[in-house]
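Teaching soon. Invent one.


***
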Amino acid sequence: MKIISKYKDFYDFIVQDHDADLNYVRHIGLVNEYLDDMFRRDGNAIPYYSKYYGYQDTYRSNRTNGELAFDNFIFGIYPFVFSQPILRVYYKYLVNGNVENFFIILGRELVDKILDSSTIVSQSAIDLELKKIAQLEFDKKTNGHLCDYAKVHFPSHNKLADIQKSLKMHVWKVDCPDIFYKMESPVFVKYNYDLLVNGAYWDNWPEEPRVGSGKYTHYVTDISFQKLNYNILKYWYNDLFDLNTYINIENFLWSIKQEPEAKPDNNTKILAHGFDLKTSFRKM
């Protein structure tokens, strides 16, 4: 497979036996359709997910200064859809009191350590590792000018079990080949303002999509992951290399390139079974 584009991606040169006649011309596309109901894990839709507002534990209007919450970015590389866990850090502006946030991409080692049921993880261990990272970024981002200094914290009612449960909701991989055929693309990301704003894809972007509007962009197809503002593959690199990513993309492109098989009409079916059109079905 020859990938034709002005940029390179992590899978562009993972080449084994491939068909040099198959070309993949990557042109970014937008899909304004809600397809999240197709993401199913253990036979069930991904929990707590709503069409416009995401996971219920992530979106609240009363976030406090320094509050932490888990969230995710969703991306697809045929035939799997992945959820990359992130940690959102909220801060409140001094001038107008508006609450904003930034996020931290979470890597596998840290997430697995928190979620590993075979290892005794204490609340203090999370405070030392997860909160330490968040506090450093909070201090760097705010720098004492945007908001009052705050100690980063999870909501007061969140204990270790709640933190683990919340994080686990944002770490998943589902086998979902159908969604790629609907989008006619072997790769995509679910639209997220953080990933695209001020990035290489933002030039000539349509009017900013608004939640709940008819123009809301749900998916961006034929994306280059290296051109996104953040490395959203961080948790999944080992899986992607183990999954023969290049070959999977090549197989997908071949499958949509093949001409559909012609379906025989009724007369052809009758003749194929040894019947005669004139005599076999006469009214007696």
Observations:
- The first helix runs from residue 108 to 115.
- Confidence is low (pLDDT under 50) at residues 48-58.
- Residues 2-257 form one domain.
- The chain has one domain: 2-257.
